[in-house]
Amino acid sequence: MTVPAPRVSTTQFDTNELVINMGPQHPSTHGVLRVVLRLDGERVLDADCVIGYIHRGVEKLCENRDWTHIVLLTDRMDYVAAATNNLGYVEAVEKLMQIEVPRRARYLRTVLAELQRIASHCLWLGTHAMDIGAMTVLLYAFREREFVLDLFEEFCGARLTYNSMRVGGLPLDVPPGWDRKVRAFCDLMEGKLDDYETLLTNNRIWLKRTRDVGVISAEEAIGLGLCGPPLRGSGVSRDLRKDEPNAAYEEFDFDIPLGTRGDTYDRYLIRMEEFRQSIRIVRQALDGLPEGPIMGKVPRLLKPPAGETYHAIESPKGELGYFLVSDGKSTNPYRFRVRPPSFCNLQGLKRLVRGHLVADVVALIGTIDIVLGEVDR
Length: 377
Known about the structure:
Blueprint: E1 18-22, E2 34-40, E3 43-50, H1 58-62, H2 70-74, H3 82-97, H4 103-132, H5 135-156, H6 178-200, H7 204-210, H8 218-224, H9 229-232, H10 240-243, H11 264-287, E4 307-315, E5 318-326, E6 335-339, H12 341-346, H13 349-353, H14 358-368, H15 372-376
Antiparallel strand pairs: 1-2, 2-3, 4-5, 5-6
Helix pairs in contact: 3-4, 4-5, 4-11, 4-14, 5-6, 6-11
């Protein structure tokens, strides 16, 4: 009897593809995110984002809270940009109830929103640079962020979750001398931006890690529903401060920076220019700050008429929208829904990482600037 020769398998160890988990505790994912990567060596073939690890049911909580109490809960979504969360919500209620906000309050809201944009971008810049290996920028950016937190603390007594706005206006006026401190900070911040750019913008390592990494065209960005800097980085001019002005933005002159390549480097340059435009807006608002009340005429018990509304603002991360439904009877919303920019931008990660190295995944998570408190809610 002839014994057949053993068959040699060429796929005995099947090393062509490898599936690994990045997270959910990975320190570079800006929250509790799990990314399931399919790899060919160091090259990413595909990726799936697994979210929900810090889901708290914020929307359902808001449907069981008084309209005025919900401001507290909006702080807990994008917790590094709480003031803009507050702004989007209170303006949505004001739109639903046709409440007129005093001009001084609208100016101060604009100042607070732009200071919040600067603080949020400082955290983004520091962590994004650190993810790629630039430790010094983290220390510099967090130093400047502390100055903004000091200004918020002086205004409302808090440094992270502010509860800084009310339906109809603001809870209180700015303290004496606060505007001078804001001006001094703007002067300081302009010089610090030059320091950041000296460290990064023409740094050959930074260019290697960001140029032509995560390129996405304008058509793809629109198709994926991207917003904010990731969308403008692809050359799409969409900024709600210009397109659908809220607060007092229609009274100020500022520019919307746009990218040309749609890569990680363009998205970095856009946010750096947004720093400067925010300073420009703040100075104009302080120069023209009107006198008068900071609270409009609002009933003691909020009970909007039956109806629904959607209102969106340009948060530091993109379009932050609130969809509210009132039944006209209850003091709670019948339906409360949030359109969070972090959640919408995160769906672009799968497209961005394909074809890049594992080391680039962290840089690409940083370039879309997500906060998982807003993604999961």
